[in-house]
Amino acid sequence: MPQAETPGIGGSPLTRLRWWTELSLILVVYLCYSAGRLLARGDVSSAVGHGLAILRLEKLLRINAEHPLNRLFTREAWLGVPADFWYASLHYLLTPAILVWLFRRRQEHFRVARTWLMTSTFIGLIGFTLLPTCPPRLLSPGHGFVDTMAQYSSYGWWGGDASAPRGLGSMTNQYAAMPSLHVGWALWCGVMLWRYGGTRWARAAGVAYPLLTAIVVMGTANHYSLDAVAGVAVMGASFLLTPSVMRAADVFRTRLRRPSVPAADAPRTSGSPVVSAGCQTSTGERIPRQRISRSGSGAEPGASPADAGDGAAAAAR
C-alpha cells in the first residue's frame, strides 16, 4: 500500500524528482526574491526610522549585542576580515550545497526541506516590503557603528557600499535588514545537518553554523539583534506553513495534469443495464422489477422470465 506523505520535516515517500525541474524552480524563486528586494527598497527616511526604533527597543531590553561585537570586529582584523568573507559568500555557497546533498543522498526529505526554505524566503520578502530597515552600518556615525565591509573592502571582492561585487552596490537593496535571512537560512542549514548528517561532526556543524552566522551579521554591523530573532521566527512560521504549502502545490499539480473531457465527448456504454439502488434492470425496463404484460405468456404480473417458465411447467403437470 503506498504511504501517505507526512507533513513536516519528516520523510516523505520518494517521488520522481528531476534535477532540472528542481534547479529551474529554485532559480525562479531566487530571481523573484532578488527582484522583489530591489522593488521593495522603500523610503530611506522611513528605513532609517525603523532602524533607530529597533535600536532603541534593544537598548531598552538590554540586548544590543551588535555594539560590542562591532567594536571587536573593527579593532581585530583577524576577526573582521573572515567575518566579512563569511557574510558575503557563505550563504551563497553552503545553502545550495546542502540542497544538492539532500537531493542526491536524502531525496525522501528533499521536497519538504526545499519547500520550507522557499516558504521562508517569500515570508522574508514580505518583511522587506512592509518594514524596510536601515542596517546599523548605514546609520550616522554618532550611533557608534563601523561598516567593517567598507573598512576591509581591500581584502575582498566586495565594494565599500555593499556586500555585492564592486560596482554592483546600486543593484542591491541595502535596507532589507528585517528579518535576517542570513540567520534564517543558516538555521535551515543547521537543522538539515543535525537531522540528516549522520555524524557527530555534522551535528556539531549544524549547531555552530547558525550561531556563528548570528554573531557575524551583528559584528559586521549588517543586522541588529532583533533582525536575527526575526529570522528565527520566520523559519518557525514557515516550518508550520510548509505542510499547507505542499498540499496546495499537490492540488494545483493534480488539477493542472487532469485531462478535461467535455460532457458531450464522454464515453457511452450502449446496451448496458441501468442500475438503480443496487438492482439490475432488464432491457426495456425503466425501474427494477417493472411489470411487463405479455399476452399469452402465462406468467403472472410482476414475475420474472424464470418465474414464468416455472409456472408453465407446473401447469403442464
From TrEMBL:
Tell me where it resides. Membrane
TM region positions: 85-103, 115-133, 175-194, 201-222, 228-249
Q: Where is this region: Disordered?
A: 259-317
Major site of localization recorded for this protein: membrane
Topology term for the membrane: Multi-pass membrane protein
Ranges of compositional bias, category Polar residues? 269-284
Q: Which InterPro entries match?
A: Aur1/Ipt1, IPC_Synthase-Related
Has keyword Lipid biosynthesis? no
Q: Which residue stretches does the UniProt record annotate as biased composition, category Low complexity?
A: 296-317
Q: Which UniProt keywords apply?
A: Membrane, Transmembrane, Transmembrane helix
Asked if the record carries the keyword Coiled coil, the reply is no
Q: Which residues form the Inositolphosphotransferase Aur1/Ipt1 domain?
A: 53-241
What name does this protein carry? Phosphatase PAP2 family protein
- Species whose genome carries this gene: Streptomyces chiangmaiensis
